[in-house]
């Protein structure tokens, strides 16, 4: 599926994280021995940052942005909704496919949390306007 590429912001449609936003890390088009259907490795936000207002101090803003909780999982391509947004986060280095089993998954989530927090606090430093809009959309709450 040419639409779902690495770095694309998607919305999970089914399962535990339904209605949450995620970023595609890797797309497996033809499937493999374990999963015989096309699927994607995605990393997303299970619980987003809390609301921040202009009157809050810098310390309070940082504390409220640390409430993020990431998730990493393989998702069937039919269970994701691709959006028009791209994000310039390099998540391939942080998420290794061999590390997604057992206790190593906790370490992967911790590194993802750091990456997401840094990106959330430094949204203005994107490579292009299109990518800045994508990261802004990624961290906003889905309204429905």
Structure description:
With 144 residues, the chain is α+β, with helices and mostly antiparallel strands. It is built from 3 helices and 5 strands. It has helices at residues 58-65, 104-121, 129-139; strands at residues 8-12, 21-28, 39-47, 69-76, 80-86. The mean pLDDT is 87.
What is the ordering of alpha helices and beta strands?
EEEHEEHH
Low-confidence blocks of residues = none
Alpha carbon gap, first and last residue: 27 Å
How much helical structure, as a percent, in the residues?
25-40%
List keywords for this structure.
five-stranded antiparallel beta sheet; alpha+beta; 144 residues; globular; single chain; 3 helices; 5 strands
Q: Helices, strands, pairings?
A:
Layout: E1 8-12, E2 21-28, E3 39-47, H1 58-65, E4 69-76, E5 80-86, H2 104-121, H3 129-139
Antiparallel strand pairs: 1-2, 1-5, 2-3, 3-4
Brief overview, please?
The protein is of the alpha+beta class and 144 residues long. The chain is built from 3 helices and 5 strands; from the N terminus they run βββαββαα.
